[in-house]
């Protein structure tokens, strides 16, 4: 653990405030004080970073580079203090200065570098790599604005700019000595080399400058600090001076503005051609900067590329960085002069690909026309990769035109498109899913032909989350109780939580565990009151559905049960056994009409229920806006029930399901994603599984008629009639008809009607069981005790051993 001394800490803070902020400490604002404390912590991080790098260089360590379009590290000061082991010392020092550390922590913005589970998983993996003393580094984009800041106006989601102060963040270290030059646009000029062979030249390209910032990533214990390297896009010239001298100032800076927009915002809208092109340029920019930097670091200590796969591993986090396949080939062949075959061998041995989705719309494809305009040389390379691959397929499976069409990187028919998942699979030596059931579906449903060709490439790596962030930091009451009971070894070895199991028979421990949960619920109730102006009862069941708003995640099914419960109380006079608070959080994509309508429906239902004196003592409904890491840290510890009710076969893994279970929430879920493995490990008796299974849905898909379920279930028919009515939209009659019709008239693709009865029955069982507080606490403890497997430390060890072939350097 690192140590800091009182006088040195105060002196460093004072020096920062005087010489950077120009203030005396007594005149400093809370923001000034936050930056002063962060600057002191940053000095410690930099010292350890340098020592870590010396260690890796001396050992000539193989390094892993994790490319992801998203990272969601959350607030960094609290995490750094915790991982460096100086949180208590810092708090005590600040107390002598009459400064409350908690006030300073609340001054920090969440870095707007991602959106959801993909980015949070990437951040967890960086935490574990550093904790395990492994040379693993993140590569991403330094967005000025995140996806969007969500506000709610009259029940509707409004998207506002999600700016975070990245240009003044104390955690972003500018690397002015490192710049990446990225060519884009232009054309291919065919020439011949000295031997008369075709030698394509990429000419007339424009140049984007990638500026580099690093965020230090501290491992728990403070032994190792790795980095998350982020790239900002800039024009290579400040102005086109010729145009400027002609008097057209605005046209002179047009290109500068165009290029710098690349790193402005996460996921620019692809609903129009300009947005689609910008999104492609953004992905290419990340890939090109990353590959340049990785090769630059490698060549500092190595000559030639014979050792490259032995010293470098690159992991593609979903299809967004799939262009790495073409870019690495371009740099090896065009820049460094390698022949195609050795370059291809290096590329495939270096790259690994993680698939994160089974949804067709989430598997990226790009029109050939856009690639031809934006990155024409890469398009040539992709065509050549595909030509050689198709020859291989024809050799292995002669006269099989179906296979050729299925496995080609280029989709013919209509507008030609590049299939990025196919490119990633062909260019990687490893393809993994992120939960056992998901990996099987990838092999057998998504890309069975590739699995038939290369079964050895496919494997599973079930996701994990870091216990440092999601128990130790987010839930100090629980982590303190655990440490008191079994010591602190669990923080870096989560399997030690199993030692809690015998304590389910200890009445004192049960009581204290319940007290921790209630204290967290009181804190959450206060946040709900401040953000939604709805008063909720901490003694009610806190049932939380927090995740991206999407039809397959079935927030709509949750609402159907709430409406059903409301009608049972209001019309049938059936009082439930315990009061419940239904809590929603999550963002809908700006162009996703049904998802945004679902948010509107939740608010419409909430308005009716929360203002009905007959019903509101028994159920309350709230939607907490702007879901983000810091909000999740407050939500998850306060949950009694975790909603994981996606349509089976749609969720790749999930990580929220793990975080909730670790913190003692009981899962209500389908056998989907990693919930399958959670059920196996915590025991089916300690959570609630309902609904159709993957194979059942597949068998029903062709003949499923949701009307059959509605007509044979009076409760469901009543609920759907109410949804279609204007009860929850009196000011905007008829607006929820679209949601009603999506399931009744347009097939109910996500099987809400088929799973309704089982879901209602399960929710009724939850209420009955919750009334037995002792048994509920026992099951809650067992959820915490049996989720050690879902640590990101375990996941990273599996990646390191099976795919990356990297090892710790403590």
UniProtKB/TrEMBL annotation:
GO MF annotations in UniProt: glycogen phosphorylase activity; pyridoxal phosphate binding
UniProt KW keywords: Carbohydrate metabolism, Glycogen metabolism, Glycosyltransferase, Pyridoxal phosphate, Transferase
Gene Ontology CC: one annotated term: cytoplasm
Catalytic activity as recorded in UniProt: [(1->4)-alpha-D-glucosyl](n) + phosphate = [(1->4)-alpha-D-glucosyl](n-1) + alpha-D-glucose 1-phosphate
EC class name: transferase
Any Pfam family matching the protein: Phosphorylase
PANTHER family in alphabetical order: GLYCOGEN PHOSPHORYLASE, GLYCOGEN PHOSPHORYLASE, LIVER FORM
Family from the record: Belongs to the glycogen phosphorylase family.
Organism, as annotated: Desulforapulum autotrophicum (strain ATCC 43914 / DSM 3382 / VKM B-1955 / HRM2) (Desulfobacterium autotrophicum)
Function, as annotated: Allosteric enzyme that catalyzes the rate-limiting step in glycogen catabolism, the phosphorolytic cleavage of glycogen to produce glucose-1-phosphate, and plays a central role in maintaining cellular and organismal glucose homeostasis. Phosphorylase is an important allosteric enzyme in carbohydrate metabolism. Enzymes from different sources differ in their regulatory mechanisms and in their natural substrates. However, all known phosphorylases share catalytic and structural properties.
EC number: 2.4.1.1
Protein name per Swiss-Prot or TrEMBL: Alpha-1,4 glucan phosphorylase
Gene Ontology biological process terms in this record: glycogen catabolic process
Presence of the UniProt keyword Cell membrane in the record: no
Listed CDD domains: GT35_Glycogen_Phosphorylase
């Amino acid at each position: 653990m690192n140590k800091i001394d009182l006088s040195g800490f105060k002196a460093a803070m004072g020096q920062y405030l005087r010489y950077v902020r120009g203030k005396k400490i007594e005149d400093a604002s809370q923001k000034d004080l936050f930056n002063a404390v962060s600057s002191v912590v940053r000095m410690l991080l930099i010292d350890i970073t340098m020592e870590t790098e010396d260690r890796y260089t001396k050992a000539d360590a193989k390094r892993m580079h994790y490319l992801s379009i998203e990272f969601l590290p959350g607030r960094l000061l609290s995490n750094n203090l915790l991982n460096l082991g100086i949180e208590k010392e810092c708090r005590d020092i600040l107390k002598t200065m009459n400064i409350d550390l908690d006030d300073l922590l609340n001054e920090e913005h969440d870095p707007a570098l991602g959106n959801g589970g993909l980015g949070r998983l990437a951040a967890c993996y960086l935490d574990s790599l550093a904790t395990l003393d492994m040379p693993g580094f993140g590569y991403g984009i330094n967005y000025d604005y995140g996806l969007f800041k969500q506000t709610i106006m009259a029940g509707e989601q409004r998207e506002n700019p999600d700016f975070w102060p990245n240009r003044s963040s104390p955690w972003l270290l500018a690397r002015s000595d490192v710049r990446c030059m990225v060519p884009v646009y232009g054309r291919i000029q065919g020439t011949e080399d000295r031997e008369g062979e075709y030698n394509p030249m990429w000419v007339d390209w424009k140049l984007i400058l990638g500026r580099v910032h690093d965020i230090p990533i501290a491992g728990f214990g403070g032994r190792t600090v790795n980095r998350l390297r982020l790239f900002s896009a800039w024009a290579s010239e400040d102005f086109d001076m010729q145009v400027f001298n002609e008097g057209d100032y605005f046209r002179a800076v047009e290109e500068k503005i165009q290029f710098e927009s690349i790193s402005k915002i996460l996921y620019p809208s692809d609903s129009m051609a300009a947005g689609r092109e910008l999104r492609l340029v953004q992905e290419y920019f990340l890939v090109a900067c990353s590959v340049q930097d990785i090769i630059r670091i490698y060549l500092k200590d190595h000559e030639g590329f014979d050792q490259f796969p032995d010293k470098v591993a690159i992991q593609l986090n979903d299809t967004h960085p799939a262009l790495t396949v073409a870019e690495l080939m371009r740099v090896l062949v065009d820049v460094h002069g390698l022949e195609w075959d050795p370059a291809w061998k290096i590329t495939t041995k270096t790259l690994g690909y993680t698939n994160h989705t089974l949804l067709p719309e989430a598997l990226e494809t790009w029109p050939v026309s856009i690639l031809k305009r934006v990155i024409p040389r890469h398009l040539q390379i992709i065509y050549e990769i595909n030509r050689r691959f198709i020859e291989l397929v024809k050799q292995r499976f002669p006269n099989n035109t179906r296979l050729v069409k299925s496995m080609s990187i280029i989709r013919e028919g209509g507008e030609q498109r590049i299939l990025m998942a196919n490119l990633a699979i062909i260019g990687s030596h490893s393809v993994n899913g992120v939960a056992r059931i998901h990996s099987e579906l990838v092999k057998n449903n998504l890309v069975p032909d590739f699995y038939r060709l290369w079964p050895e490439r496919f494997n599973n790596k079930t996701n994990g989350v870091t216990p440092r962030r999601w128990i130790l930091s987010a839930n100090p009451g629980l982590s303190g109780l655990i440490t008191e009971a079994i010591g602190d070894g669990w923080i870096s070895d989560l399997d030690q939580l199993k030692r809690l199991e015998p304590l389910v028979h200890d009445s004192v421990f049960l009581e204290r565990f319940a007290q921790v949960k209630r204290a967290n619920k009181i804190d959450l109730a206060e946040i709900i009151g401040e953000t939604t102006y709805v008063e909720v009862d901490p003694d009610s069941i806190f049932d939380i559905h927090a995740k991206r708003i999407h039809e397959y995640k079935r927030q709509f099914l949750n609402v159907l049960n709430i409406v059903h419960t409301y009608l049972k109380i209001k019309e049938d006079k059936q009082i439930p056994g315990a009061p419940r608070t239904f809590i929603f959080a999550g963002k809908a994509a700006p162009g996703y009409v049904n998802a945004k309508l679902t948010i509107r429906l939740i608010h419409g239902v909430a308005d009716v229920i929360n203002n009905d004196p007959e019903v509101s003592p028994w159920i309350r409904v709230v939607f907490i806006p702007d879901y983000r890491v810091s909000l999740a840290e407050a939500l998850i510890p306060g949950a009694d029930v975790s909603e994981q009710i996606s349509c089976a076969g749609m969720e790749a893994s999930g990580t929220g399901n793990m975080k909730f279970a670790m913190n003692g929430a009981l899962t209500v879920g389908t056998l989907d994603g990693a919930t399958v493995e959670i059920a196996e490990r915590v025991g089916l008796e300690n959570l609630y599984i309902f609904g159709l299974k993957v194979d059942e849905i597949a068998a029903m898909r062709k003949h499923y008629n949701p009307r059959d379920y509605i007509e044979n279930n009076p409760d469901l028919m009543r609920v759907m009639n109410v949804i279609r009515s204007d009860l929850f939209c009196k000011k905007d009659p008829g607006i929820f008809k679209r949601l009603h019709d999506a399931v009744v008239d347009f097939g109910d693709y996500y099987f809400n009607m088929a799973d309704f009865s089982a879901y209602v029955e399960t929710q009724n069982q939850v209420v009955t069981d919750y009334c037995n507080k002792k048994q509920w606490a026992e099951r809650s403890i067992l959820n915490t005790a049996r989720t050690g497997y879902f640590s990101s430390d375990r996941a990273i060890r599996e990646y390191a051993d099976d795919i990356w072939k990297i090892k710790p350097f403590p």
